[in-house]
Amino acid sequence: MTGRVPPLVIAPSRPSGQGRGPDGSLVATTSAKEVVRAWENFASGEDIETGVRPEILASWYRCRDRYDVDRTLEIAPGARGDEAQRTDNGVIYTALGGLGALAGQAVERDGAIVTVTDGDGRVLGTWGDPSAQRRAELHNLAPWSSWSEECTGTNGMGTSLEVSGPVTVTGPEHWCEAFHQWACAGISIRDLVTGAPVASINISRWNASLSKLVPPWLTKAVACVEQEIYRRAVYEADKVLAEFSKKCAQSSGSFMAMDRGGNVIAANEEAIALLGLAGETPIVAGATEPAERWIPDIAGMPEVVRWAKERAQGNAEWSGYARLTVCPGEEAVPLTLRSVVDANHVVGMLCAFGVEDGEAYEGTGDDTFGPLPRCVIGMRDDRLVLLAPSEIRYAEADRNIVWLVTERGRIQAATRGLDNVERLLKPFGFRRVHRRFAANLRRVAEIERGIKGELFLIMDSRAHEFVPVSRRHAPDLRRMLGV
After folding, report:
1. From residue 149, how far is each of 57, 160, 253, 423, 476 by CA, in Å?
2. Where is this region: Disordered (predicted)?
C-alpha cells in the first residue's frame, strides 16, 4: 500500500440518551422524530421530500422502487458463490485488507468494527472489537455475506457503492429496521477506467454514533489505494497503445484503440475523420491519462464493448463484430473488436471499422432497460428534488456528473453518467444531441444555424438557452423534428 494513512479517531466517549428516536434507535441529526417519521411514511409508500438527507432519500428510492428490498429483513443474505470478482483486483484487496487491519486495531477500544467488501458488496473481511463482531454476526455482517443496497438496503457499504465520496448511515436512515441501532460510514474505491466500484471500506458501531472525523479519514485512506488504480490504468493504456501502433503499421483502414471502459485512447487519421475527432490532440498522440480519453458518440457502443470484454475474457485471440450507426442518418456499418490481453486479463480493445470478423453481436432491444421510474431524482443543496420528466429541458454531462436544467433551476441528477440518464428519459422524448448533451425534444423552442452550418437548439427563448447539436446527430435530429 502506497501513501501514508492518517490516524483514525472514532469517538471520545460512549453515547448518552441524546440523538435517539422514540424507539431508542440512533439518528444522524437532533431531529430524531423527523427522521423516524420520514422512514415510516416513505416505507409505507408515500413520496417525501424533507425529513432526511438527500443522499439517504435517494437510497430509499432505490431500495423501495428499484430493488424492492424487504424492510423487515434482519439478516443479510449470503453472497453469490461465483468468482467473477476479478482476480486482477487482488492487489487492491490486499492493500485494503492491510488498511482494514490497521483501522481495526484503532477502533477496537471504541467498540467498532471495520469491514472491507468487493465491488458487489460481498464482505471480504472484518476487524475490530470482538464483542462488536459477534453482535454484527447476528445480522450476518461477516465474510461472504452480501451488503449491497440491492440485497440489504441502505447501509454504509452498499450505499457507498452507489455514489461517490464517503457516506454515513445512522440509525433509522438504514432501510431495514433491524439495523436501526447501528451507525456506519463507508466509502467506495472506483475503477478510473470504467467508473465502476471495485471495493469499499466501512466502519460500523452498535448503539453509538461515529465521530465527524471518520468520513475525512476514509477519504484520505482510500486515496492511498487509488494510487495503485491510477498506476494500473496508465500501464494498461501503454499496453493497448503498443498493440494499436503495431496494428496500424501492419494494416490499412480506420482503427481506434479503447480501454476496458470503451473510452478512446487513440485513433488513426481515417478513424478521426470518420468520428469527427479532428483537433482532439490527446487522441491523436495517445491518451495514457484517463481524464484525457474520449467517449465515442456511437449509439450502442457501450453495450457492445461490455459484451466484447465478457466474451474475450481469458482468450487473447478473440474477436467479434457488430453493426452500429457510426454517423447518424446513415446506414449502420460493421465494426470488429479485438481484445488486448495482458496476464490473461482484457485491458482494452482494438476497433476496426468496415470489417466483420469473429463472433456476431446479437444485441438486445430497448425494452430491456427495466421498469421506468415514477420520477427523476435530483439533488440540490440539502434536499432531494423529485422532477417530472416534462420539467427538464436538457441534461448536460460534466464527466460522470449530470446536471438537469429545469424549471426549478440547475439540479444535479442522482443518477451518474449521461448514458444512464438518457436511458431513463428516452421514453419521454429525450435524445442525445451531443456527446455532452441530451435534450427534451418536446421543449425545443427554436433552432438556430451557426456560421459554419452547425445547429443550436434554443430550449428557452426568453433566456436564450442554447444546446449545441453535433454534426453527427444533426441528420437524425432534423428527421425527428421534421425540419
Report:
1. 13, 9, 46, 21, 38
2. 1-25
* Dihedral pair phi/psi, residue 325, rounded to 5°: -85, 100
User: C-alpha cell of 187?
Assistant: 466509502
Query: Cα 141 from chain centroid?
Result: 24
Residues 417-436, buried b or exposed e (16+ Cβ, 10 A)? bbbebbbbbbeeebbbbbbb
Cell of 205: 458501531
Q: For 201-230, what is each residue's pLDDT tens digit?
A: 999 999 998 988 999 999 988 888 888 899
**Residue 111 CB neighbour total at 10 angstroms:** 18
| 451-465 confidence digits (pLDDT tens) | 666 788 988 767 668
Does 234 score more than 50 pLDDT? Answer: yes
| DSSP letters for 114-141 | EEEEETTSBEEEEEE-HHHHHHHHTTT-
Looking at the chain, how many residues does it have? 483
> From CA 68, how far away is CA 44, in angstroms rounded?
13
CATH of domain 372-481: 2.40.50.1020
Domain ranges of the chain: 32-230, 251-360, 372-481
Residue 128: band (very low, low, confident or very high) from pLDDT cuts 50, 70, 90: very high
Can you tell me the distance from the alpha carbon of 162 to that of 159, in angstroms, rounded to the nearest whole number?
A: 5
> What residues contact 113, with CB distance under 8 A and at least 6 apart?
104, 107, 126, 127, 128, 129, 132, 133, 136, 141, 203, 204, 205
Give the Cα separation of 199 and 190 in Å (integer).
7
CATH number for the domain formed by residue range(s) 32-230: 3.30.450.40
Best-predicted range by mean pLDDT (76-80, 185-189, 466-470, 472-476) = 185-189
d(CA 135, CA 120): 23
For residue range 408-453, list pLDDT tens digits in order.
888 998 887 888 888 888 888 899 888 889 999 888 888 888 766 6
> Which pLDDT score is estimated for 477?
83
Could you tell me whether strands 167-170 and 182-190 are parallel, antiparallel, or unpaired per DSSP bridges? Answer: antiparallel
Nearest to 96 by CA among 164, 197, 182: 197
Yes or no: say if 149 and 162 are a contact pair by the CB < 8 Å rule: yes
Domains 251-360 and 372-481 share a fold: no
For residue range 350-367, what is the model confidence (pLDDT) as tens digits? 999 999 999 999 875 444
Mean pLDDT value of segment 118-140:
95
Convert 438-453 into a string of H (helix), E (strand) and C (coil). EEEHHHCCEEEECCCC
Fold of 251-360: Beta-Lactamase (3.30.450)
Q: For the segment 244-254, what is each residue's pLDDT rounded down to a tens digit?
A: 999 888 888 89
Give every CB contact of residue 302 below 8 A, 6+ residues apart in sequence.
Answer: 262, 419
Q: Are 266 and 241 in contact (CB under 8 A)?
A: yes
